[in-house]
TrEMBL record, chains A, B:
Phylogenetic classification of the source organism: Eukaryota, Fungi, Dikarya, Ascomycota, Pezizomycotina
Gene Ontology BP term (one): glycerol-3-phosphate catabolic process
PANTHER family named among the record's database cross-references: GLYCEROL-3-PHOSPHATE DEHYDROGENASE, GLYCEROL-3-PHOSPHATE DEHYDROGENASE [NAD(+)]-RELATED
Protein name according to UniProt: Glycerol-3-phosphate dehydrogenase [NAD(+)]
A GO MF label: glycerol-3-phosphate dehydrogenase (NAD+) activity
Pfam family, one: NAD_Gly3P_dh_C
Length: 391, 391
């Protein structure tokens, strides 16, 4: 994501500042002797280095994205507060379990009229109900936060292999008041139209900017993310985009169960289709105002991401192995993922917990079947009967 | 299809007659010594047998669906006219190149109030324009003809592996006149409501039936095709169902080109999504009155069939090989299919010829790119640029 944004801010100098500040969680790394960066005479190779400092020397994250050179205008910064200071656009590309802590750190340290885009997929289910991560971020920071999701495997994008994504951005109506440092941040104060909108610059990160701040249009958000190898479609349905990325993993488990049974491509395509329609139903039922069926059925964050996830994603593969080997999925996680947990199983449990609370398990027979299979209460072979339409 | 229909007519004796007449093109077959049916003392194994007679003895089509026992109420009949005589429901499961000849034979030899369901996918492009095969059948026979299409690989269905399908059936408004043998067949005379609708029987094939003839509801059509392992969704969009099965093969070629380049699952899912939306656009533009986006994006005949075809169908595999081996697709057809032609290539040419005639090539950049790749005018690598949205 840093690569894409950095390429785009360079391509649109009238619109964005050139530097992209990238917060990295600091750690020590060592350049391996087999690395193309290894040079016994280089000071970088005399023992452990700070990840951020090394990145700013060689423009590569040797630990998390080895082999990919990032543009020089991406600056790694180990200080979250410093990286985000004065940024008008914050792009969140973090595992969901860190959102809460990161927002705590950012609170009070960002521009009140900053905007967020969450690339973290999924929903947060608690006693209080169900919340999108984009909503959690927005609420905690008092800013508007959109979402980006699609059939996007990071390493393929880094290699500039063609893909698509969906960006949802739909801030509340423009408020024409001027922002001032005294403003307490709130969504309605964020979108300010400036007379010199064309000349003002959005910044992907850092440094002071004019107090007059242009509204951020779909067109300009698109310019931050769209590349010849990474096609962006803009929508307004933040809920649909956020949900697609989470719920598709539950569908991928179901598809894996089918494939594990050796039932062939017809069966797999059938549960993908049924799953996609349960995703639509879930969105429309629980996020009705904003959620559109087409976000799931026509966009990269929906249908295309379901397809990718059911072709070879981790959830799909582990579910398939579980059936083939007659094992519980936790055992497969142990064997295949070093005990790392699948996103699909936790989402299946969260979705089920929410549906049960709403008394709506039977309205979502595939999601419920996946939960019951994970719980050992249902067999994969029963899926067709369970999802058979009753009309 | 005969298996499914035969199981269902037995399950609904109040609605359907028990016997299913299946026309087979007569040929001579010999039971192989390795066959489970081989018995040196059996008269069936003393040289070549007629396919129809052998089928009626052993209830298996040893040439075209070996290993699958069909229900005893399927009767193979080498006479097309005899098989269709007095049938009120005609199910067409034939390669499209035979439709014309078969309709010539049936003309004047079927009940004027018979109904058809076409399982033959695709469209017929000629100087006169574009016509669905269901429309061709209906027009030639003077009957109403619906369509069945879905992610349905025949051998998987025969083995009762779970799958889904879509049946489109939407006859013109009911005409309450009584049919009489003197009626010239026309669509408006077909749908006749009988007072004893519940008691009258639809016949899948053969034998006289009451002159009072009930309208055929979605519910009853569904009963003819729905099985626990073959889930049917009924829709009214005959154009969408017919087009889905044809156009998906063009999309499968595009997906194969991506995979052949080694561009990964993101790229493949992206062209599948773009292709699905071009299918929607094609349907809505050229069959606007009846065609619904959801038929493509939400039904088995659309999204699910695209998925199956792009996972491992012949069109996908041959397109992939063509790129990998640097060959023309005709050469791959020669090598891999013994010179048999792919459905996707002929559909791509037909679709292109129609779009060109309409001056609309640029409105369908993926379909056009596939055609140009087949023609050697475009390289697969150019697809992303060609389908990049211009907005």
């Amino acid at each position: 994501m840093a690569k894409i944004v950095a390429e785009n801010v360079k391509a649109h100098p009238a619109l964005f500042e050139e530097e992209v500040q990238m917060w990295v969680y600091e750690e020590e790394v060592t350049i391996d002797e087999k690395s193309r960066h290894y040079d016994p005479n280089s000071p970088l190779c005399q023992g452990p280095q700070k990840l951020s400092a090394l990145f700013n020397e060689i423009h590569e994250n040797i630990k998390y994205l080895p082999g990919i050179t990032l543009p020089k205008n991406v600056i790694a910064n180990p200080s979250l507060v410093d990286a985000a200071r004065d940024a008008t656009l914050l792009v969140f590309v973090i595992p969901h379990q860190f959102i809460s802590r990161i927002c705590d750190t950012l609170q009070g340290n960002i521009l009140p009229y900053a905007r967020g885009i969450s690339c973290t997929k999924g929903v947060d289910v608690s006693d209080k109900g169900i919340q999108l991560f984009s909503e959690s971020i927005g609420a905690r920071l008092g800013i508007y936060c959109g979402a980006l999701s699609g059939a996007n495997i990071a390493t393929e994008i880094a290699q500039e292999k063609y893909s698509e994504t969906t960006v949802a951005y739909d801030p509340p109506p423009v408020d024409s008041r001027q922002p001032s440092p005294a403003h307490s941040p709130s969504q309605s104060q964020v979108d300010l139209v400036a007379p010199n909108a064309e000349e003002s610059k959005h910044k992907a990160v850092l440094k002071p900017l004019p107090i007059e701040y242009p509204a951020l249009s779909h067109e300009n958000v698109k310019k931050l993310f769209h590349r010849p190898y990474f096609h962006v479609r803009m929508v307004s349905d933040v809920a649909g985009v956020s949900l697609g990325g989470a719920l598709k993993n539950v569908v991928a488990l179901a598809a894996g169960f089918m494939d594990g049974l050796g039932w062939g491509d017809n069966a797999k395509a059938a549960v993908m289709r049924v799953g996609l329609l349960e995703m639509v139903k879930f969105g429309k039922h629980f996020f009705s105002a904003s959620c559109r069926a087409q976000t799931f059925t026509e966009e990269s964050c929906g249908m295309a991401d379901v397809v990718t996830s059911c072709m070879g994603g981790r959830n799909f593969r582990c579910a398939k192995m579980a059936v083939e080997r007659g094992m519980k999925i936790e055992e497969v996680e142990q064997q295949e993922l070093n005990g790392q947990k699948l996103q699909g199983t936790s989402t299946a449990y969260e979705v089920h917990s929410y549906l049960k609370g709403q008394g709506m398990e039977h309205e979502f027979p595939l999601f419920t079947a996946v939960y019951n299979i994970l719980e050992g209460k249902t067999k994969p072979e029963e899926i067709p009967e369970l999802i058979e339409p009753k009309d």
